[in-house]
Amino acid sequence: MSAAKALCALVAALALAPGFACAAPRVMSLDSCADQYVLALAPRDSIVGLSHRAVSRDSYMRDAAMGLPLRRATFESLVAARPQVVVRLWGGDARLSKALEKKGMTTVTLDDAADFEGVRVNVRKVAAALDRRAEGEAIVSRMDAQLARAAGAGKGRSALYLTPGGFTAGAGTLIDAMLKAAGYANASKAPYFAPVSLEGLVMSPPAAVVLGLFDMARAGADRWGPGRHAALQRVVATRTAASLPASVVGCPGWFAADGARMLAEAAR
Questions:
Q1: Which of 20, 56, 219, 257 has a CA positioned 20 to 30 A from the CA of residue 146?
Q2: How many CB atoms sit inside 10 A of residue 228's CB?
Q3: Is 229 helix (H, G, I), strand (E, B) or coil?
Q4: For residues 149 and 133, what is the distance between their CA atoms, to the nearest angstrom?
Q5: Residue 106 pLDDT > 60
Q6: Is 163:244 a contact under the CB 8 Å cutoff?
Q7: How far apart are CA 68 and CA 50, in angstroms?
Q8: Could you give the CA distance from residue 196 to residue 144 in angstroms, rounded to a whole number?
Q9: Calpha distance 185→205 (Å, rounded)
Q10: What is the widest separation between alpha-carbon atoms in the chain?
Q11: Which pLDDT tens digit goes with each residue over 162-195?
Q12: Is 53 within 8 Å of 96 (Cβ atoms)?
């Protein structure tokens, strides 16, 4: 037991009023993916800082982020916010991490989860640091329930994930885990993220196409897209099973199970 928890237990034992509890630790997140975990797990009044992307369209928890302080991932911001726990995936740099250690702040670094077990680990890691284990288990249980409902819906059909930038996702990605959770076989043979072969897609189209991030595509910005080639447009128009929003596929979080559920519902 840490010194802080020991002190909390002692004060609670000595308190005359029933139901006494120590306040939740002050917490700050340094990037948009860390924001989701902090917003889902921390009491609202304990959140002293989120990244500026917490309220963006691709933030799964953006509604919960409204009204909370948005800060940059700088040492000055951290000193001003005085968090006790800092959560990050990619936010900040090596110098900032060292500065956090010197200040005695607890730093929770999320893993770039490539499967749902990795997501469970991330949820439980943040939940433990915030002393919110019950809330963490509730999130894991909800995710697992969605995965159970989605299982097998795709009946082994091949599905290709496709972004506006012309990329797909293969083995070693959470997208791959999402497709498999919904009962689809990933049509991409290349691991990780790779450009789609236009010729291969047109000559040997998959049974289903799963669009991702198309809700964030901007006219003229994403120059590759279904409308650029007539043959590709026909494949996408006739074989699209679902279009997954950026808020579901943009970060390695429990909400990837929402994507599996969407795919399962589209298959039925």
A1: 56
A2: 12
A3: coil
A4: 24
A5: yes
A6: no
A7: 7
A8: 31
A9: 13
A10: 75
A11: 998 889 999 999 999 999 999 999 999 889 999 9
A12: no
Q: Which residue has the higher pLDDT, 18 or 148?
A: 148
Contact present, 132 and 41 (Cβ < 8 Å)? yes
- For residue 153 the two structure tokens come to 């819906």
Q: What letter does residue 50 receive in the DSSP assignment?
A: B
Phi–psi pair at 173, nearest 5 degrees:
-130, 155
Neighbours of 97 (CB within 10 A): 15
How wide is the angle at C-alpha 157 spanned by C-alphas 151 and 162, nearest 5°?
95
- Give the per-residue SS3 of 71-109: CCCCHHHHHHHCCCEEEECCCCCHHHHHHHHHCCCEEEE
Q: How many residues appear in the chain? A: 268
pLDDT per residue as tens digits for the range 210-244: 999 988 876 555 555 555 667 677 778 888 999 99
Strand 240-244 to 208-212 pairing: parallel
The H-or-E segment that residue 238 falls in is helix 230-239
**C-alpha span between 24 and 265 (Å, rounded):** 39
Mean pLDDT of 100-109: 85
Nearest 10 degrees: Cα torsion 227, 230, 235, 241:
20
Closest CA to 245 of 255, 233, 234: 255
Q: Are residues 229 and 201 in contact, defined by beta-carbon separation less than 8 angstroms?
A: no
- State the Cα–Cα distance between residues 249 and 183, nearest whole angstrom: 18
The Cα 112–Cα 115 span in angstroms is 9
Cβ proximity of 43 and 68 under 8 Å: no
Amino acid at 68: L
| Residues 6 or more apart whose Cβ sits within 8 Å of residue 130 | 24, 25, 27, 41, 42, 46, 85
Instruction: Give me the amino acid identity at 16.
Output: L
